[in-house]
Amino acid sequence: MSDALAAAQRELEELRLRLAEAQETIRAIQGGEIDALVISDAEDSEPPRVFTLDAADKPYRLLVDQMHHASAALTIDGVVLACNTQFERLLRRERQAILGQPLQQHIDPPGLPVFEALLRDGLAALAESEVMLRRADGERLPIVLGVRALHEGVAGVCLLVVDLSEQKRRERLIADEATARAILEQVADAVVVCDNEGTVLRASRAAHDLCGTNPLFQRFERVFALARHDAPGTRVDLDAVWRGEPLRGLEVSFDRPGGKRAELMLGAGPLVVAGGERLGVVITLTDITSLREAEDELRRRASELQAVDRRKDEFLAMLAHELRNPLSPIQSSLEIMNLQALDDPLANQCRDVIERQVQQLTRLVDDLLEVSRINTGKIQLQMARIDLGAAVLRGIETSRPAVDAKRHRLQFACPPEPVWVRADSTRIAQVIGNLVNNAAKYTEIGGDIGVRLECEGGRAVVRVRDSGIGIPQEMLAEVFDLFTQVHRSLDRSQGGLGIGLALVKRLVTIHGGQVEAHSDGPGLGSEFVVRLPLWDGERVGPEAPRVDKAAAAGPSLRVLVIDDNRDAAELLAALLGMLGHKVQTAADGPSGIATALAFVPQLVLCDIGLPLLDGYGVVADLRARPEFAETRFIALTGYGRTEDRQRSQASGFHAHLIKPVGLAKLKTLLRPPQAGEFET
Ligand code: ADP
Question: Where along the sequence do coiled-coil regions lie (predicted)?
Fold first, then answer.
């Protein structure tokens, strides 16, 4: 065999081997046993070339596609090259809408700088950061992005996404729980959460402190034995609360284990979660012990003040009574002097002075007495349908002496027809009298006083105007307060206690009216305006019967005067004697009864505060006897409070009159009694 043949045989053998190798490779490739081919050239002059076979990627693609985390491959600009199914779900978008688009459009704008930095850093090494993803439906989702460079093929990054929403939810829950715990630790009120059967599930620190034990898993009512504040000793019934009914502001008491009682405000309401399920009941107990103690203290002080106020009223009433006693005989003396013409002009003048001063004194005493009635609201009105003009005129007349004394010009204007109002004419006259009296008092001699009555907007309006010293603006509202005096520095000769206007306001108010003061300032005069409701808008009709039934003095009567003030009794007896009546006197209760039994008077004028037996006892005794059926009993006293009048009436008096009683009034008393009458 030649060399050439041998070489050809070797080459053939080599080719056969390589063919077998190629056939084996194709079989392996077809059998799926090969992932990649590495082709290197025989001389090793070129680096080997690697060909990855498509079928070899499949498991990896499946792996990536089905993995739990979302992932994607991006270009270094963020354009999505590939993504897995989880990534589609995360964005809630179809893969077609994601691929080829920059991922930036799905990142919440505030997170964009972080994302850009991630892409940059990820090219160098693994980088991760939290950003907020915006889903197709707009929902925002917290995620962690892990980025690392793709080392093969394209220049880009591989993105691994971790959905943080569940983690965040847990964190929030934990934070909520911590907050709830902190609230329960720190809240000042006792807060107790129970299940629907009333077993304590949670309790605040204050609740632990209040009950002095650990209330958890015990029955609420066993640990907190609450009693109703409005019914001490009665346990609070919480059945309705366990049924889910809310309860607000129930005041309860709780005896703490240490023995100290706590006053609490209980509130309860169902604990309902988002789905509407009722998990239990939340109860709050607010400690109001110190509030209650403060209230009790206030109440105690108020009642102390009331007691002081009552004592003051009693004192004023008593003082007025004591001041009236001496006034009564003085007035009687004056009446006697008036009946006997005095020749001496000086004596006449003195008598006039005394008369005026007694009137002034009587007014002061009356005011003093009224103040206690103002304070206790015990002014009783004798309401009737009256012509306001007539009452106003009567008020002006009572102040006439004060007006005349200072030589003021007084003008009165009123509509020609009657102005009907529902009112107590005596009290209205008193109101106008006070206002005109003040106008006279606070106006220099020779001033002008105007009283005008008119109807305005369905109301009767009385204006009392003067040209006097006026009232500063800031005092206009205050002048109606009790004991307020603007011109304290004035000469006190006019007298006054700062009661008149308070009385005016009170009287007008209880008539349903208003009074206000106007003045342009000091020296510019004042105006007081009284407004009263008209008689239901109706302007005509008969006037109500007058309460004061004046009766002409009849024939001589037997009169018994019982008064421990001898002067008063004697003078009254003398006065009645001069009017032609037979009079006897007695100075105490028992001798009054004895004299009455012997004398059988037709009229008894009886003081109340008598030695041994008071006036109430005397009249009760005498009226029980048939021989006094025709006798008229009149209480003549210094006590003018409502309760005094009521007591007189209840004891059997036919009238209750306040001393001093003028002659004119006395004359009206001298008549037989009428059934059921009671005059004050
Ligand atoms: P007083 O007994 O002091 O007159 P009043 O309550 O009647 O008490 O009046 C309160 C105060 O209002 C008076 O002290 C006086 O300063 C002021 N006042 C009342 N009426 C007038 C008026 N017509 N002009 C000026 N001041 C007045």
Answer: 5-32
Rounded CA-CA distance 491/497 in Å is 13
Best residue for ligand 1 mutational test, from 361, 485, 515, 530 (most atoms within 8 Å of Cβ): 485
Residue 498 Cα to ligand 1 midpoint, Å, equals 7
Q: Where are the beta strands (DSSP E) in 446-539?
A: 448-456, 459-466, 514-519, 526-533
- pTM beyond 0.85: no
Beta carbons within 10 angstroms of residue 668's beta carbon: 16
Q: Are 404 and 437 in contact (CB under 8 A)?
A: no
- Peptide bond preceding 113 in cis form (omega within 30 of 0): no
Provide Rg for the chain, Cα atoms.
Answer: 54
Nearest atom (ligand 1) to Cα of 480: 6
One-letter amino acid at 675 equals A
- Report the alpha-carbon distance of residue 6 to residue 2 in Å, rounded: 6
Identify which of 540, 437, 455 has the alpha carbon closest to the alpha carbon of residue 497.
437
**Which residue type occupies 188?**
A
Angstrom distance (rounded) from CA 637 to CA 369: 13
* Smallest CA separation from ligand 1 atom 8, residue: 498
98-119 as b/e, with b when 16 or more CB fall inside 10 Å?
beeeebeebbeeebeeebeebb
Type of residue at 119:
L
* Chain segment 93-114, per-residue pLDDT in tens: 998 889 889 999 999 999 899 8
Instruction: Express each pLDDT in 620-649 by its tens digit.
Output: 999 999 889 889 999 988 777 778 888 888
